[in-house]
Amino acid sequence: MAAQRSSAGETTSQPRVFLLSLETEAFFEDMYKDLLNGLLSKAKVQRAKKADATLRYLSENTPDAIFATDPALLKPKYSAVLDKVISYVRDGGTIVLGGHFSSFAKPDHLKRFFEFSWGLPWQSGYYHRTTVHVNVNCQGLETRGLPASYSQKALFLKNVPPEGRLYLPNRDSMTESRVFGPERISDLSQAAVVFAPYGRGRIGVLSIMSREMSQLLSV
Questions:
Q1: Please, what is the Cα angle at 12 between 9 and 16, to 5 degrees?
Q2: Segment 5-49, tens digit of pLDDT
Q3: How far apart are CA 159 and CA 140, in angstroms?
Q4: What is the 3-state secondary structure (H, E, C) of 71-102?
Q5: What is the residue-averaged pLDDT of the chain?
Q6: Which structural domain, as residue segments, surrounds residue 195?
Q7: Which of 60, 75, 78, 122 has its CA 20 to 30 A from that of 178?
């Protein structure tokens, strides 16, 4: 397990974020450099790339947030890690699933993951580019500092309760394809970014990856 270098202004009051990177692709750092730099400027970051190191860390530490950077938790061979993570969240922790998580996870695998592991009805929804807007009523989350809107291609999630939808389309949102003409978004309940209560903690899913989104890991 390696420690990520934080900014020169790091203080002991910085939140602790644990990067769970069991099967992250080699190009992850380059692709999400802005988000990682934003995170390093706000938090003390530790990272594990092996299951045994993850289990050891979570047995000895309680980070403020876990950032799962790939879909490894969907695989049965990491079931012990997943059980540990779920217990951590139920007891008040925060996990954010992002990076390559949505990009490499198959829709049917996602459905089983949320339904059977977490007891949640969340499923894959649209996959397209549109403008989404922040939900200032997202339960228990301070949205100041987050952009009011984004235009980005994202995998949306459906069946998320209203209080857990952080970014979603509005009545003016249209598809923004470079190939096909714009179409009005028919289902305004699907979320591009989720940050929902779970037990005493929270579970987030980031399909939008930017420097500003690092705030969700360091609040």
A1: 95
A2: 444 444 458 899 999 999 988 887 888 787 788 888 888 999 999
A3: 19
A4: HHHHCHHHHHHHHHHHHHHHCCCEEEECCCHH
A5: 87
A6: 2-218
A7: 122
Tens digit of each residue's pLDDT (9 = 90 or more) over 57-104: 999 999 999 999 999 999 999 999 999 999 999 999 999 998 888 878
CATH number at residue 63: 3.40.50
φ and ψ at residue 204, rounded to 5 degrees = -120, 150
Helices (H), the chain: 28-31, 33-40, 51-60, 79-90, 101-104, 107-112, 118, 215-218
pTM of this structure:
0.87
State how far the Cα of 67 lies from the Cα of 44, in Å rounded to an integer: 13
**Structure tokens belonging to residue 3:** 């420690």
Count of domains in the chain?
Answer: 1
In the numeric block, which tokens belong to residue 48? 């594990």
Give the Cα separation of 46 and 43 in Å (integer): 10
